[in-house]
Amino acid sequence: MKASVPVLGGAAVEVELDLPGDVLSRLVAVPAFVDLYCDPGFPGFPPRETLDSLVVGAAAGGFGAVLCSPRVDPIVDVPENLGRVETRCGVRLLNAAALTAGLGGVELTEMGLLARAGALALSDGGLPHRDSVVLRNALEYAREFDLTVFLRPADADLDAMGVVNDSGVAVRLGLRGNPSATEEIGVTRAIALCRATGASVHLTHLGTAVAVERLDQARREGLPITGSCAARSLLLCEDDLDDGAYDSRYRLHPPLRSAADRAALVDAVRAGVLAVAADHQPRAPEEKDHEFERAVPGSAGLESAFAATFTALGDIELAVRALATLPREILGLELSTLAIIDPLGETTPRAAGGRHRADALAGRSLRGAVLGLSH
């Protein structure tokens, strides 16, 4: 049946929904969300994801646009490897191109050609840079084409050290620790190079209180730098691993940090310092069905991102700002698509099976539900 659903902060919109009247009466329409980081799994990795499953999952999660990482096969480092900017089922698929050839961190890509071919941003594909000279040159080059550079800040050598946060939890579990200093060093370098070059920089996968503090200081200084964290990181921390189960759903990179770090992320999102990404990195069951250290890091996230953010913040306007308003500003993106939300609904992410891939939040009861897109 057709129903009139109020738009957050605006007029109503007519939508076709087959739901009981008491549910229809509590729905609200909000700006569709934008995922700032997605490893789509295609082309090249069909067991992880297909184009159809990505679009279905994005629409189910209320995402009107998804920025796809260049870390696919073939790597998006030349114009002919760049996918078309297209819209399916109300979901706009956007492309970030590689910052360096083969994401190798050595030779710069032809950024101008990639921009003309439709690249919306440049990305390191989540791989840390060893060579600061190359990174500085890349930022200077990107600035000439007015392209934002997406970086996961980390020291390459420290980043390779471990699979969980370097803390007492790692000791108790007998797993190699990944020190939070890797992110602190990476953020400090990124800020310094942003200041030196004037390039627009976006820091992805932030997970530590120190990194958030440094980012906030840089933004107060007026530098063109922004940051985001994964929605799951607003709810999960290293304590979720400390039960002896060695659940590979929690094998993420960068790893889950401390409870204090998680609280700092929530505060930063509340303050508008951080945007929130679904950080959708689907993995095939055979990639996760290993002992913890050998499991491939990553988690699905599109269908649980809103509920995770809403659960952590407890405020629908703050959740929409983090998932829709700030990401649109970061990408300079305009979308007319709306997401239909049931604030009193419940979302329980499903375990891997069918088109669903392992979600670190599987089985948890989260506040709020997305009923789809209106476009």
Commentary on this structure:
The structure is a single chain. The chain is of the alpha/beta class and 375 residues long. It has a single domain, classed as Alpha-Beta Barrel (TIM Barrel), CATH 3.20.20. Helix content is 30%, strand content 21%. Strands 4, 5, 6, 7, 8, 9, 12, 13 and 14 form a nine-stranded mixed sheet that branches. The chain has a three-stranded antiparallel sheet with strand order 3-15-16. The longest helix is centred in the middle third of the chain and has 17 residues, at 181-197. The chain is globular. The two termini are 17 Å apart. The model has no long low-confidence stretch (mean pLDDT 93).
Percent strand equals: 15-25%
Structural class: alpha/beta
Q: Report mean pLDDT, rounded to a whole number.
A: 93
Q: How is the biggest beta sheet arranged?
A: 9 strands, mixed
CATH fold annotation: TIM Barrel
List the helices and strands and how they pair.
Layout: E1 2-6, E2 12-16, H1 21-24, E3 28-31, E4 33-38, H2 51-60, E5 63-68, E6 86-88, E7 91-98, H3 111-116, E8 121-123, H4 132-144, E9 149-151, H5 156-159, E10 164-165, H6 168-173, E11 177-178, H7 181-197, E12 201-203, H8 209-220, E13 225-230, H9 259-270, E14 275-277, H10 285-288, H11 305-313, H12 316-331, E15 338-347, E16 366-374
Parallel strand pairs: 4-5, 5-7, 7-8, 8-9, 9-12, 10-11, 12-13, 13-14
Antiparallel strand pairs: 1-2, 3-15, 6-7, 15-16
Quick structural gist:
The protein is an alpha/beta fold and 375 residues long. It has one domain (32-299): TIM Barrel, CATH 3.20.20.140. Helices cover 30% and strands 21% of the residues.
